[in-house]
Amino acid sequence: FCMLTFFVSFCQDHKGKKHKKDKDKETATSGNYIANNGGAVNCDTSLWKYVYNRKRLVITEICKTVTGVIEESNADEDGDQHMLLKLDKGQKNLLTARNIKKKQGDLVIEAVCMNNVSLKKVGNTCKGYVNHIQLPAIGDHVKVTGSLVIDSHNGWAEIHPITRIEKLK
User: How far is CA 118 from CA 48, 152, 161, in A?
Assistant: First the structure.
């Protein structure tokens, strides 16, 4: 079956074929740009090839925009910049119980391949890719666009990978 979040070409190419849910979602991320919220902002789904161990991420929305304040920012050993975002009012429904318990009620957001990779098992995931996202400072109010996922290893919700971060005034 084809869901609205999947690419039209994916749906047409796979009509009548049965696939496991996770395989469908992984295949849906193999394109380039898809519209978010009526086409106002696009998500670059080609970034998924730079996500280390992407099978652990279960896609809730392939393209989602959220707003909030950066509360924490750290370089992860897989090369990603791992940040915590205190969501603005009206977005709490995006959080899981694990976000509330383990991440102080914040949404995890990750910009892929922002830093040097020190974890050997990441291999060449970031090789040849330079991420040009301008990282915000702690305390910045931002608008973040990317894929809304559940990290199945940790149980929390994330925007991962981030397509765009815009500083708000």
Answer: 20, 23, 19
Calpha distance 53→82 (Å, rounded): 15
| Whole-number Å distance between alpha carbons of 69 and 144 | 10
Dist. CA 69–CA 52, nearest whole Å: 26
pLDDT, tens only, 46-68: 999 999 999 999 999 999 999 99
Say whether pTM exceeds 0.85.
Answer: no
Whole-number Cα distances in Å, 124 to 9, 55, 108, 133 = 29, 17, 24, 20
3-state secondary structure of 49: helix
Listed in sequence order, the residues at least 6 apart from 121 whose beta carbon sits closer than 8 Å to its beta carbon are none
Helix or strand run (H / E) with residue 163: strand 157-167
For 96, residues 6+ apart whose C-beta sits below 8 A from its C-beta are 150, 155, 156, 157
105 burial via Cβ count (<10 Å: 0-12, 13-18, 19+) = middle
Our CA angle for 121, 123, 127, nearest 5°, is 150
Could you give the CA distance from residue 35 to residue 3 in angstroms, rounded to a whole number?
A: 14
Q: If you average pLDDT over residues 113-134, what whole number do you get? A: 94
| Token reading at 79 | 């090369």
